[in-house]
Amino acid sequence: MPITVCGRSDMRARMTKCVGMHRLATRILSFSGSSGSATRSSGNTPSLEGRSPGAVAAAAAVATMTSTSSSLTAPEAAKPTPAPGVNQPKPDFVWTRHWWPLIPVDYLKPDRPNPVTLLGITMVVWRDAGGRWRVFRDRCPHRLAPLSEGRVESDGSLSCAYHGWRFDGSGACRRIPQAVDAASEAAACSSRRSCATAYPARVEFNMLWVWPDASPDAEAAAAATELVVSNDLRRRDNPGGTNFSWFMRDLPYSYEILLENLTDPSHLPFSHHGHSPALARDKGGAMPMKPSQDVTTAAAGAESPTPPPQWARPDGPDFEFDFRGNISPDATISVHMPHQVMYTYRLGPQFQIRMELFAVPVAPGRSRFFSFYSRIPIRFSPQKLLTGGVVQAAKYLLYVWDPVVLSHLSTHEILDGDSVFLSVQDEVVQEAEERAAITATVPGGDPVVTAKDAAAAAANGGGAARSASTLLSRLYYMPAQADAAVQAGRRWIEERAGGAPFRARQQQLLAGRAATIGAATDISGSAETLTTGGLVGLLAADKVPGEAPDPQRRRHLLSRYEQHTRHCPSCSKRLQQLQQMVAAAAAVQKICLLGMCVAGGALSAVLAVAAAAAAAPAAVPWALPAAALAGSAALWAVAGGLAAAAETVSKMFIFQDHVHADKN
User: Fold this and answer.
1) Looking at beta carbons, which pairs linking 198-204 to residues 24 or more positions away fall under 8 Å?
2) Where in the sequence does UniProt note compositional bias of the Low complexity kind (predicted)?
3) N or C: which end of the chain has fewer CB within 10 A?
4) Checking DSSP bridges between strand 100-104 and strand 71-72, what pairing results, if any?
5) Cis peptide before 113 (omega within 30 of 0)
């Protein structure tokens, strides 16, 4: 994730000019550290020389970062007001009519199809003969075999492994081997039914983006819609996308739960205690959020030629709050729905940190998290190895060797700190939604209230009376202002996006089941009746929603390998090298063991001969076998130590349990 450090001169007062501007935006999860020089034009990259490995690894809260120096001009420094009409009712959001970040280009294999899932849609990504990345529905139109099991042929077409049908980049079928002759093949290929479903896709910022809609106007609608990324990221991009690296991890809980988590800075000192000096339980406390203050007008803003770097849209974020954070007492969270969360931490009149996070819905109960790391030059310092202890020295060496990998490991620590309880929370919420949906569709049941009375909910700490607000506002009790951004995100999803990306489909399925359940069971709103009666048919016999996970399930929830490493080119490469190191060290140990046996035997024989001949020790040639024995033993020990160290580090790429009770 990026952290951008910028100079800022009198931010609150100096913004009277800016284009249709809206508010500050940023994100939260990483580290940085360098004081900014005062001019943007200098383009100086701050050095990390002199910083501790811990600061290099994660100075704030999540794991990827970037650091750049510049001064903020007035338009960038203040929090502007949206242009007239910004607060007017906006159209309903359609989940499939949006540019979603799908997968970093570096994570893709160009010589084969790559399966990816988004919004419950199985997709296949492949590169055509022209070097362009294409995104299809992962189904062959012939008999629905997954195209991701196929091949990218030498002519640049995608072939289905089942019957060899081939498709070009547009989705048109170009080859049907089963056709009896060329004429019948041409006729079959000319049918629209022979085409694979293709989605609009584009590569920007080294990320593949997809518009997951295949309707006739999809291409035109996609072309007319901008990506939701910050101007800061747009400025930092270059044609090759080589100045930063993306982090991606699939997570075992719903998109809505991930979005709540990313918009909740108050949990950081508790969930991520010890990750950095700023994150400690004794530093947690009140974190009131207030809507950002408007400091300019649209008329004045229209005179500004440059939109703020934090903005992802011309009219600014969907909602924004100022708060007093652990990293800085002057912080702002800005959210551009549905997928981008940005944080700004102001550390002084000339210094601020910006961080940008992305949340993506994969499937019910599954989400995807993105952040990015900007490469910062760093010079090797032997002093680091002597002053920080073994662990810090190892982190420093890893940072010098591969800062991207270290940033990924640091991000894993943050995500692992939340994954177990967020997954359990997700189960509890899903169970409650299922119960409510069934109750609402059975005669005599308690109808689900869909009115969004935000004022009533806020007056009751976000947990309004049973008839006052949404189901979640009755489930959650949120009396503190620290949950303001969480409430705003949930309100946006309820009011503009149908409640959740998969809610409509889930309600359809549950409605069908409810009729059967209601015919056999009296569902009157009783939690006991629902849990022991109707819902038992919806739940696996051996699964209790909300139950603390056993060790096997914890390994699943916290599997760094399955959720990240096997997809990430940097981490998979380092894991392979570490495993090779372990194997090589084991081989060296075997050779050393053999050497010790030979040298020990030789030494014993020499000493035995000397003893039998009553020779003086000085006259016995024992030094050579003794040296061989000692050398073999020393090398065996060193190889063992290296193997143990490599094995320990390799586990960081596979699984690390995170037990909060052990984090003292």
Assistant:
1) 198/134, 198/135, 198/136, 198/137, 198/169, 198/170, 198/171, 199/123, 199/135, 199/136, 199/137, 201/102, 201/125, 201/133, 201/134, 201/135, 202/99, 203/105, 203/133, 204/229, 204/237
2) 32-43, 68-80
3) C
4) unpaired
5) no
